[in-house]
What we know:
Mean pLDDT: 84
CATH architecture of the largest domain: 3-Layer(aba) Sandwich
Radius of gyration: 32 Å
Shape: globular
CATH class of the largest domain: Alpha Beta
Strand order of the largest sheet: 5-6-7-3-8-9
Oligomer: single chain
Strand content: 15-25%
CATH superfamily of the largest domain: P-loop containing nucleotide triphosphate hydrolases
CATH topology of the largest domain: Rossmann fold
Largest sheet: 6 strands, mixed
Structural class: alpha/beta
Amino acid sequence: MTILSVSNLNKSFGDTIVLENISFSIEENDRIGLIGLNGTGKSTLLKILVGSMPYDSGNIYIDKNIKIGYLAQDTGLEGYKTIGEALSSVFLKQKEQEDELHRLENLMASPKIYEDEDRLEDLMHQYSMLFEEFKENGGFEIESRIRGVLKGLGFTDEDLEISSLSGGQKTRLALGRILLESPDLLLLDEPTNYLDLESLQWLEGFLKNYPKAFMIVSHDRYFLDNTVKKIFELENNTITLYNGNYSEFVDKKQALARIHEKQEKIRQKEIQKLEENIQTFISHRNYIQAENRKRRLEELLPKSMSGKSSAPAVRLRFDMQDSSGKEVLRIENLGFSYGDKNILKNVNLKVFRGERIGIIGPNGIGKTTFLKILAGQLEPQEGFVNFGHQVEPVYFEQEQQDFSSKSTVLDEMWNAAPGLSLTEIRTFLAGLLFFQDDIEKTVDVLSGGEKSRLSLGRVILQGANLLLLDEPTNHLDIISKENLEEALKSFKGTIIAVSHDRYFLSKIATRIWEFSDGNIIDFDGSFSYYLEKKNETAKTEVASENKESKTVIQKIKLRKRQEREKKRQEELAIKELEENILKKEEELEELEHMLCQPEVYSNPENSQKVNKAYNQVIYDLEQLYDELDRLA
Length: 632
């Protein structure tokens, strides 16, 4: 069944066409990846679909019973103080219904109300109707659902303030709000940005099991391969549909490109032949034949030139004004904490000129804090950070909050390099894919990818010899990522980069720092070397276990048997709980029926008795659901 369809959709910003005659449909179980270069209109399309941005012309049909959940690049959590508040806000309607049910219960429990039978009957009717609506809206399951989401997202304290969360934690929390809403269509804009490997795997697992439709904007090839079954490519202002995951899309597009290339060669040969024929006929004054060939040539020329031109690629080059000394950075006994949480403890490291260091570790462990300390934005609480001779650092911030929202692209770049001429700035911005009127765009209308390119441009213009990069590939399309990797490999200075992009790390890193419980473990080698060492450690642990005595091995086997028995007992307990829940739900329905009987609600004693039994069954059900959540 089609739940959403778009036909002949058009959208422009001034004279710039973004979407032109876009047409597609989404079925109720579709799994779609929306791809394309940054700035091509992917986020714009999602905003149009959810109604947060107008469009110029065309038609959008959305089934009236369909609920859409939208995860924007901006997580939309600014209005909430704590994690619990952000998640509970999903159920405001149910909360109002619950409060009203309690109010009605208190009224019906009052002895005076039984003196007015009409009033009592009216209250009972209101209560019955509202109760059914509250139940259908999942009102009795709210607390257990919130607890389940909190656990799944890796949060242990619902009172944790949102302002203290990392970018990845905010993304997970925003996604959690959408999951609680259980939408029929998920629209996710770059959901993998800021996610560490563990969070990424969790999101992949969720989407694999999601029973409804979703459309994802992403440049993560591995993620798309694991989650989608259709690719919508947005290119040259229009959408082309491909069945299959990302790898299948690449194969099909390459095959089409080969076909187009062959067709183009044939057209070019015919064009050349026609041009020669025209000259021959003109020289023989056979103008009728020459005009016939010219008309044929005019038919061919637009086709030969109408093939989709390749999009311009971003041009990046990091040049430094001065070379640093051999020792770039010395970190001595560095310590930093937030309250009782140790971020860094007694860290001692040295960095030398030309090294490219990749920093890895889960989100929230302190990688960004560490970079901010190196960049001078935070002061060490213990120890020292000392730069070597002529070291000039520059910091690329992953959330890019240091832009002025109303300044233009040109303003931001000119502020970074006031000594350059307008022509030099324009030429430089063209290399970052900001052409003509693009340079007059204000920062607040830029896409995530455009902001990343602008921020990278400011870093380049500093001419620094130490690059401190926090997730530099976030928001970049695949081509831009590859060009950034090549530019960083050619850079003669020193690089310290936080990243969860395994492909990026394998291309640029010559040394790996792994964050672990306040410590930084130093691996003096590439990302492949790091993986080898981690595998060796795992093998050593396995070998050590194999040398354990027979007694220990028997204990392990015994423990496994006990675990299997425990699992079997849990399965039996779950089955018993489900049977008890079914019985309680049947009992609840029976009590609901009794509450609506005149002989009950007209008799205060009977009404109170049934109400008491009814509330007890609800309490018992909540306890059973809680126990089921604990075992499931």
